[in-house]
User: Fold this.
Amino acid sequence: MSAARRNPQGRRPARKPSAGGSAATDRLLRIALRRRKQPLSHADVTITDRPAVRRAVSAAALGNTMEWFDFGVYAYLAGTLGKVFFPASSPGAQVVSSFATFAAAFVVRPLGGMVFGPLGDRIGRQRVLAATMIMMAVSTFAVGFLPGYHAVGFAAPILLLVCRLVQGFSTGGEYAGATTYIAEYAPDKRRGFLGSWLDFGTFVGYALGSGLVTVLTAVLGEDGLVSWGWRLPFLVAGPLGLIGLYMRMRLEETPAFQREAEQAHKEAEEVRAAGGEDPVEVARQSGHGRLKEIFTRHWEAVLICMGLVLLYNVTNYMVTSYLPTFMTETLGQDPLTAQLLVLGTMIVVVLTITTVGRSSDRWGRRPLFMAGSLALIALSVPAVLLIRAGGILLPALGCLILGLLLVIFAGTSAATLPALFPTRMRYGALSIAFNISVSLFGGTTPLFASGLVQLTGSHMVPAYYLMAAGVVGFFSTLFLHETAGKPLRGSGPMVETKEQAHKLVAHSRTEAGRRARDIWIRLRHPWARRH
Assistant:
């Protein structure tokens, strides 16, 4: 092309499309503009109510406090309960038997998740959380009244097992429901901070339970605990359960669930008005249909969730449930010293967990999980070596390392896991994925660790177990999409003030206008160049 036919800037002039080409371009333009992402309206943005958010966080966290009060008591009383319910066994076998009863509760957790999770997606989060609170309180309270082996023989451990199974079944709907409830109430930019209060309640409950057992150990001694003192911590669960039930009965449904329920009702009315029910939608709404959809359409999210849950819960149960027994029964350290060291570690976790949650809002969930996984692989062996060193200072340093690794996962999980699934099946999918992973890998950690130590004679088994969990967590994090500051899947944005809502809507409209302009330029002027 000669220089005379070029414009002064040396660019090729845009061609004039033919009449037929213009019609086709206009048709493509109309289709593209119709399919573009629509800007947000003020009706799409939810402005959270601060008092309602505080009530939601408090009530959800209290349920976890009660659940982990029981775990703390059981972990610190594992040796004592072995003597009460399995007196004919050797000391090592008593510990393994006690942890086997502890692990039995986790066998039924997936069953509880499959019942309570889809039910929470159908009838509401608040009702199911109230039901799980009642079951947990009654079953834990009942343990305090159980007769020992010397009173009723083999029936004693069977009764303990029944109580643990009821606890496990109710817990199958507890944690996933509580994380879902808080996540659906929290504004997008503070979901990490508010979600961390759930696990704050977890470790407060553990600290209260373990602290109570520590005090009873110091006051009553081993003989007093075995005789009658072990019952007292379980009896405390009754008043705690009543308080938790009262708080949960005062809660309202989450805004996300209410919108989803209204939309589903509207669609059902439209289908009925058209002359019948859509069989595909009916199948999706049924329990079987929801389970099928979870494992066929959301299997990647399920696997990522299971990997992150494994990482968190192996670390969690290794520190909270197995470490006190490992230090006393395996390493032969003073029981009171070991209990104080682990209790001090839990206090550090409680004091730092909300800071980690706030950091996940600022830096993102993915970087924290990645750094924590790598640190767990690198520091598990040094931490266990320090715990084995004897004395007070070095074991305290080893416990502190494990506690700081634990708090990275604990402060981030409650905001990360619910964001993996859409609103209409969030409770069910999270309950199933979470409880399968906890049952297979988390709750069995004390049993497997104690059994492997007995089998191999190696005191480094806990370190190798933690390293394996770190590897699984690292690869799971590689496939995790960042969700910090973003709306939950299937839900609209959530903000704290009207000003934030106005800014979000204005920004969305500006971005929609830019996208429409870009589509227009590319279709009407395909040879144009933007600078």
Remarks:
- Residues 191-229 form the longest helix (39 residues).
- Strands lie at 46-47, 494-495.
- The first strand starts at residue 46 and ends at 47.
